[in-house]
């Protein structure tokens, strides 16, 4: 039974790493355009793109780690609780990444650029 859990953990870990690796090219593309922007609104948008990419990558990493910890917890209540806490942090990271465009629009309104 433990080899099934270990195999499942390896599959979850690999999937998480692949998803995180697929988000990295978007981060690199956004960082190369930071210096090329001529308007403040474009700079803010480019910074938002970088931050969203990093948040999604980190949240995916936390979700993967939480999933692996949950699978390998083996019924230990403290390990299961720790895994749930890690998954909760991943959900918070995804939530902040989803709200980032709205926060940038508020920042643009405060700065006065549209």
Blueprint of the fold:
Layout: H1 2-32, H2 40-72, H3 77-111
Give the number of helices: 3
Termini Cα gap: 58 Å
Q: Outline the low-pLDDT stretches.
A: none
Mean pLDDT: 77
Major sheet description: none
Q: Indicate the proportion of strand residues.
A: under 5%
Shape: elongated
Query: How many strands appear in the DSSP assignment?
Result: 0
Number of domains: 1
Helix content class: over 70%
Rg calc: 18 Å
Q: List the secondary-structure elements in sequence, H or E.
A: HHH
Q: State the secondary-structure class.
A: mainly alpha
Task: Provide structural commentary.
The chain is mostly helical and 114 residues long. It has one domain. 87% of the residues lie in helices and 0% in strands. Helix 1 runs antiparallel to helix 2 and helix 2 packs antiparallel against helix 3. The longest helix has 35 residues. It is elongated and about 55 Å long. Pfam families: T4SS_pilin. This is TrbC/VIRB2 family protein. It comes from Actinomadura barringtoniae.
């Amino acid at each position: 039974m433990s080899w099934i859990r270990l195999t499942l953990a390896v599959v979850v870990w690999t999937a998480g790493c692949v998803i995180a690796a697929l988000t990295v090219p978007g981060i690199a593309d956004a960082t190369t355009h930071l210096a090329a922007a001529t308007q403040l609104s474009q700079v803010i948008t480019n910074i938002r793109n970088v931050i969203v990419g990093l948040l999604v990558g980190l949240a995916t990493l936390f979700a993967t780690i939480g999933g692996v910890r949950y699978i390998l917890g083996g019924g230990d209540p403290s390990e299961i609780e720790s895994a749930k806490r890690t998954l909760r942090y991943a959900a918070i990271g995804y939530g902040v990444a989803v709200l980032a465009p709205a926060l940038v629009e508020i920042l643009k309104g405060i700065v006065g650029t549209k």
